[in-house]
Amino acid sequence: MVGLGNPGSRYEGTRHNVGFMALEAVAAAAGSAFRAQPRLQGLLADVGNGEERLRLLLPQTFMNESGRSIRAALDWFGFDPAELLVVVDDMDLPLGRLRLRASGSAGGHNGLRSTISHLGTQDFARLRIGIGAPADNPAERRARTIGHVLGRFSAGEQPLLQAVLSEVQAGIGLIQRQGIERAANRLNGFVPA
């Protein structure tokens, strides 16, 4: 499982790093810590044992080159893209919404674009976490996109963000037990209280 984001303290807590936040929450809940894996160009944590074990990867290549780290990890562990779940931010979804798909396009996301390019396929699961858009007007949205995705969640958004991250943790367990399709029914219908 891969969380997408940008490395370094400058980007901690930004909307673009919600994929990192989700995997950090999964690791913390399991009492696991990330450690540097230079050959994978990322940070790696293991959660669970045996058949239940998950390998969590946070690429340290910056968002636009995420695919290099993901390709290195799949090659190192002998995994197929079909065994991959990428957790990523999505500006087209409002904060509080999730979208799980078994495959699909990059949808304008540079991290997914890099992943598709390095894997040579779109056939890997992705869980998109809504971060909301900076504006409804297309011209204003384009002008404010970078500041928005590299901005931090407000204090008022924190409770909603925590509810989403908790749901993502539950959803990952559901994916393991019941598969993508069944998990998608729950996650895609998630509406925070």
Structure description:
The chain has 193 residues and is an alpha/beta fold. It has a single domain, classed as Rossmann fold, CATH 3.40.50. Helices cover 39% and strands 17% of the residues. It is built from six helices and seven strands, in the order E-H-E-E-E-H-E-E-H-E-H-H-H. The strands form two sheets. Strands 1-5-7-6 form a four-stranded mixed sheet.
Which SSEs are present, and which pair or pack?
Layout (H helix, E strand, L loop, with lengths): L1 E2 L14 H12 L5 E3 L4 E6 L6 E6 L6 H12 L7 E6 L7 E4 L8 H10 L5 E6 L7 H12 L8 H21 L1 H9 L5
Parallel strand pairs: 1-5, 5-7
Antiparallel strand pairs: 2-3, 3-4, 6-7
Features:
globular, Rossmann fold, 193 residues, alpha/beta, 3-stranded antiparallel beta sheet, 4-stranded mixed beta sheet, 17% strand
Could you write a compact summary of the structure shown?
The chain is of the alpha/beta class.
Give the CATH architecture: 3-Layer(aba) Sandwich
Number of domains: 1
What is the beta-strand fraction?
A: 15-25%
Largest sheet geometry? 4 strands, mixed
CATH fold-level topology: Rossmann fold
Q: Which whole number gives the mean pLDDT? A: 95
Q: How many β-strand runs?
A: 7
Q: Could you tell me how far the N terminus lies from the C terminus, measured between alpha carbons in angstroms?
A: 27 Å
Helical content (DSSP H or I, runs of 4+): 25-40%
Helical segment count: 6
User: Strand order of the main beta sheet, please?
Assistant: 1-5-7-6
Low-confidence stretches: none
Order of helices and strands: EHEEEHEEHEHHH
